[in-house]
């Protein structure tokens, strides 16, 4: 807030016409307007024959800023009192207009008026909105309005009476506010008038003997105006101001109003608050300024605090009746009004300066300005010194001639200086405009890319949906015969109508394009103009040495030029800084997108992993390897470091969340083989997830009635295992280390029909599979075979150590998760012939699963399992996707320099020999070909995750190509790798 200017409270007086009642009473006119400012009040009780009082004046004269009598129109009153406040209001000056006077003297008439003769409220608002409209091309306004009444010392919202009584509060700046008042934002005069009329009807009005439509409350209309420039500037000024328009209740004498009961009580309150107002006026008008101003005596004075003694231009319109019968009231009113004239308020403009991110630019410019000022002063001093020397050497003719010539040269130099300054100023102006244009252009570009992204996202989504629909309808058409097709027509294609957001994005794009064109034109024009001006300035600079005689002058002008050059250079630098800033902002948008996808990737990988763990699915070695690599990547915070690097570069905060408690890890039993040092390291670094507690009730529920499902599931799984083994390639010879190594990959699995691992003990996996199939063998089905695929440790342990209760619990848990189990107790038809998905017996060895608050007896063999609550039930569908090949993955992984991170296999060899082979081969990345898909189905959920990831990354790739992505390229590539991993998991699951 700027320092205020002291100004006096303006006081106007209005004398209403004699009312019918007064005429009937035979009252005479005692109040006369003498001229525009002077009013005379005559005492009707004076007896001209009273000799004792003969020398006393019969009349009292009052002078106000303006005075009106019965002949004054509403328009005249408004023009002379309030109109002038509007300009100040929109420039940021608070204003108050209040009508004061005894009851029935015309306050409401002046403020509200009638339909035919509207009062100050309407006229002010009309003019305010007109003024706003006139300047709305350059300025941006927001206007809000509230309307309240103070009735019996209680504040009521006239725009929302149901809000009850409101309180007055003082904000941090000491401005009085009405807490919870309704503020209507509009710049429509008609709308405001309607609200006003509505509010006024709610105002407490009762007929009294003195006035048929006596207002029993003080009505306060508050209009708040906020204004700021539309054009973006280095320093943006926001101006705000409040206008109070107050129609006070009239002071009254009980005898005159003949009020009783409620009216009398109202009158007492009105008089009390008016007395408080009078006291404040007295105190404020005290010439010595010693009196304490007690605003706190009434709500009215608290509300008027700023209007009376603070930051406001205030107009008081005092009202009196001209009738002799109202002499006393008129005299009191005139006395108070007269006193109020000497009240001074300190008005200041309410300004907030909003500086933008180019604040540094402002400071440089202001420094340069002060430098220019200093130079100007130097020139002026020099001229002054010259003048003085002229005077002293008046007798010296030679000096006279010199003076003459120096005067001439000074004039010339002044002219030159003016021209130079003008040229420089214009150059600066153009530079500034160019910067603004550049800034706007950048913002448009950012907006454009955002909208393009919205459209691209939508189009990708549409394509995805279409493809899905096409695949489904193809499948349907294969399954259904013709007659069925006729009766049950296929689903309609997915809705491809654009969303509102996309339509709006397209519309906005068109507008942005045209804006951009306009900006380009303006820029070209300004650049041409700038070049012209620069040439002109250079020509002037060249003239300098010839025109300027004094060396000092030349030096000064040279400096001036230098300063301007620097100024321009600075402006250019700032312009470049802005440009860079905008580029960074653009990049940041892309990085943020990457971040989103990274989280998505993490989530998918973990959920898929959880899925694998829960259902004890077999994990091919190369996938396990990739997964371990992913875990290491997470543990070593590599991605986060890359993100941090990007953060530093872009100076933007990108939230990078480490998966934290979701870290989980699967290791082999040390009794069977020794993990590599790195694996141990990773294992040690893995965080343990919180244990899962299952309450007794739930456990009981779980235990009940799932045995059948367990048996059925096991049977089906065994069948499926059999099928899988038939599809697996031949196993290598156990004696050949190379082949041992290769045996870990599916490509070198035993040939179809060959017995597994002859001449050696079955691997734990195999043993496990066999033991697993104990259940199925009990149903008369043969054991399933599983050779080289990694199986979860816990499965083995579970089969040995699990109690029936735990088994039952797990089966129950599975049941909850699998819809197909729930409905039929069997796997769906299409799945039953394929790889097993659900292993009800396997997951109960989860070390973190506490039943009845007790830790399980088993030692955990893998640490960290996602909490059960994180796992979603797999939604079964029959759609196949196109997973990326392993080669493809490797390509990307190598490109990202992941190859060095492809650590020795966590691929779970089944014997110590195998472990040796593995450790030997640990330095080279696996080259296992992608397993041939046995064909089958995958849960739709996983399909959609993978598709989302792929589609998203594809979009990002395109985006990266379009933009400068150097800073984010690492992150990008890593995301690619993550995506590949996810795809592989997906691919695996789809078997
Ligand atoms: N200047 C005027 N010209 C014509 N009629 C007027 C004028 N001033 C007041 N009146 C009339 O006088 C009557 C009383 O006026 P008004 O209700 O405005 O008084 P008031 O001061 O608001 O009274 P209260 O304090 O009791 O509300 C109204 O009927 C109004 O129309």
Name its key features.
nucleotide-binding; binds adenosine-5'-triphosphate; 23 strands; 3-stranded antiparallel sheet; 991 residues; 12-stranded mixed sheet; alpha+beta; microtubule; P-loop_NTPase; 32 helices; Kinesin
Strand content: 5-15%
Helix content: 40-55%
Could you report the average pLDDT, rounded to the nearest whole number?
A: 65
Strand pairing plus helix content: what structural class? alpha+beta
What assembly state would you assign to the polypeptide chains in this entry? single chain
How far apart the termini lie comes to 72 Å
Protein architecture, described:
By secondary structure, this protein is α+β, with helices and mostly antiparallel strands. It has four domains: 5-354, Kinesin motor domain (Kinesin, 3-Layer(aba) Sandwich), CATH 3.40.850; 359-481 and 496-585; 591-669 and 881-915 and 925-989, no CATH class; 692-870, no CATH class. The chain contains 32 helices and 23 strands. The strands form six sheets. Strands 2, 6, 7, 8, 9, 10, 11, 12, 15, 16, 17 and 19 form a twelve-stranded mixed beta sheet that branches. Strands 3-4-5 form a three-stranded antiparallel beta sheet, with helices on one face. A two-stranded antiparallel sheet has the order 1-18. The chain is flat. The model is unreliable at 648-695, 701-714, 724-938 and 963-968 (pLDDT under 50). The chain binds adenosine-5'-triphosphate. The site of adenosine-5'-triphosphate (ATP) has 18 residues, from α4 and β14. Adenosine-5'-triphosphate is lined by residues 16-17, 19, 101, 103-109, 211, 213-215, 249-250, 319.
């Amino acid at each position: 807030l700027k320092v205020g200017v002291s100004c006096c409270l303006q006081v106007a007086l209005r004398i209403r016409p004699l009312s019918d009642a007064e005429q009937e009473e035979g009252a005479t006119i005692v109040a006369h307007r003498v001229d525009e400012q002077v009013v005379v009040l005559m005492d009707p009780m004076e007896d001209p024959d009273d000799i004792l009082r003969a020398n006393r004046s019969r009349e009292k004269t009052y002078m106000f800023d303006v005075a009106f009598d019965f002949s004054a129109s509403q328009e005249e009153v408004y023009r002379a009192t309030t109109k002038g406040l509007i300009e100040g209001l929109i420039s940021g000056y608070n204003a108050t207009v209040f009508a004061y006077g005894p009851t029935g003297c015309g306050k409401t008439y002046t403020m509200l008026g009638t339909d035919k003769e509207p009062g100050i409220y309407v006229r002010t608002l009309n003019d305010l909105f007109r003024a706003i409209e006139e300047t709305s091309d350059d300025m941006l306004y927001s206007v809000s309005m509230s309307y309240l009444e103070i009735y019996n010392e209680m504040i009521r919202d006239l725009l929302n009476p149901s809000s009850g009584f409101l309180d007055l509060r003082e904000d941090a700046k000491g401005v009085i506010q009405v807490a919870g008042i309704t503020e209507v934002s509009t710049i429509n005069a008609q709308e405001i008038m309607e609200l006003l009329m509505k509010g006024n009807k709610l105002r407490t009005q009762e007929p009294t003997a003195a006035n048929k439509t006596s207002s029993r409350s003080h009505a306060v209309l508050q209009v708040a105006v906020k204004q700021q420039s539309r054009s973006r500037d280095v320093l943006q000024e926001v101006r705000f101001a409040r206008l109070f328009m107050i129609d006070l209740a009239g002071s009254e004498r009980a005898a005159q109003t003949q009020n009783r009961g409620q009216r009398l009580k109202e009158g007492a309150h009105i008089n009390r608050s008016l007395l408080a107002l009078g006291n404040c006026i007295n105190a404020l008008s005290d010439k010595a300024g010693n009196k304490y101003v007690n605003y706190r005596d009434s709500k009215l004075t608290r509300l008027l605090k700023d209007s009376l003694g603070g930051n406001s231009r205030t107009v008081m319109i005092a009202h009196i009746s001209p009738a002799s019968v109202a002499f006393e009231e008129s005299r009191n009113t005139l006395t108070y009004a007269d006193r109020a004239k000497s009240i001074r308020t300190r008005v200041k403009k309410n300004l907030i300066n909003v500086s933008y991110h180019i604040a540094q630019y402002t400071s440089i410019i202001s420094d340069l300005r002060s430098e220019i000022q200093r130079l100007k002063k130097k020139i002026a001093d020099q001229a002054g010194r010259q003048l003085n020397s002229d005077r002293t050497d008046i007798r010296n003719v030679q000096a006279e001639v010199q003076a003459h010539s120096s005067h001439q040269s000074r004039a010339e130099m002044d002219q030159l200086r003016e021209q130079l300054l003008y040229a420089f100023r214009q150059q600066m102006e153009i530079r500034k405009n160019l910067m603004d244009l550049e800034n706007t252009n950048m913002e448009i570009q950012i907006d454009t890319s955002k909208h393009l992204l919205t459209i691209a996202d939508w189009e990708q989504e549409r394509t995805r949906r279409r493809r899905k629909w096409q695949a489904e309808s193809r499948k349907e058409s294969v399954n259904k015969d013709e007659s069925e097709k006729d009766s049950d027509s296929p689903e309609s294609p997915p809705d491809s109508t654009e969303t509102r957001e996309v339509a709006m994005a397209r519309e906005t794009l068109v507008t942005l394009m045209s804006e951009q064109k306009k900006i380009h034109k303006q820029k070209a024009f300004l650049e041409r103009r700038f070049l012209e001006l620069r040439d002109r300035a250079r020509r002037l600079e060249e003239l300098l040495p010839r025109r300027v005689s004094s060396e000092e002058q030349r030096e000064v002008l040279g400096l001036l030029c230098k300063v301007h050059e620097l100024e321009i250079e600075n402006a250019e630098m700032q312009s470049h800084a802005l440009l860079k800033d905008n580029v960074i902002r653009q990049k940041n948008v892309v990085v943020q997108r990457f971040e989103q996808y990274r989280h998505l990737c993490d989530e998918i990988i973990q959920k898929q992993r959880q899925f694998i763990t829960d259902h004890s699915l077999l994990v091919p070695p190369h996938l396990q390897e990739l997964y371990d690599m992913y875990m290491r990547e997470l543990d070593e915070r590599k991605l986060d470091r890359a993100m941090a690097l990007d953060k530093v570069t872009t100076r933007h905060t990108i939230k990078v969340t480490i998966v934290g408690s979701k870290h989980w890890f699967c290791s082999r039993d040390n009794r069977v083989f020794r993990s590599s040092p790195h694996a141990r390291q990773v294992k040690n670094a893995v965080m343990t997830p919180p244990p899962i507690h299952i309450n007794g009730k739930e456990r009981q529920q779980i235990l009940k009635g799932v045995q059948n499902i367990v048996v059925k599931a096991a049977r089906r799984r065994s069948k499926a295992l059999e099928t899988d083994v038939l599809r697996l390639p031949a196993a290598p010879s156990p004696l050949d280390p190379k082949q041992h190594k290769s045996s870990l990959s599916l490509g070198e699995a035993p040939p179809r029909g060959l017995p597994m691992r002859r001449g050696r003990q079955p691997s734990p996996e195999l043993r496990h599979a066999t033991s697993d199939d104990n259940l199925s063998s009990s149903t008369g089905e043969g054991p399933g075979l599983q050779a080289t695929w990694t199986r979860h440790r816990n499965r083995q342990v579970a089969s040995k150590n699990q109690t029936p209760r735990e088994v039952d619990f797990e089966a129950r848990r599975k049941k909850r998760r699998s819809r197909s189990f729930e409905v039929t107790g069997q796997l769906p038809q299409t799945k039953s012939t394929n790889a097993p998905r659900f292993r009800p017996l396997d997951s109960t060895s989860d070390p973190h699963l506490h039943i009845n608050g007790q830790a399980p007896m088993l030692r955990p063999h893998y640490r960290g399992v996602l909490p059960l609550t994180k796992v979603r039930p797999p939604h079964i569908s029959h759609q196949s996707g196109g997973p990326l090949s392993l080669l493809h993955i490797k390509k990307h992984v190598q490109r990202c320099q992941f190859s060095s991170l492809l650590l020795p296999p966590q691929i779970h060899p089944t014997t110590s020999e195998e472990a040796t082979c593995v450790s030997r081969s640990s330095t080279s990345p696996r080259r296992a070909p992608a397993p041939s898909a046995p064909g089958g189905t995958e849960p739709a959920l996983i399909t959609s995750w993978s598709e989302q990831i792929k589609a998203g990354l594809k979009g990002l790739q395109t985006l990266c190509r379009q933009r400068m992505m150097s800073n984010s390229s690492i992150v990008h590539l890593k995301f690619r790798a993550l995506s590949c991993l996810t795809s592989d998991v997906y691919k695996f699951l789809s078997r």
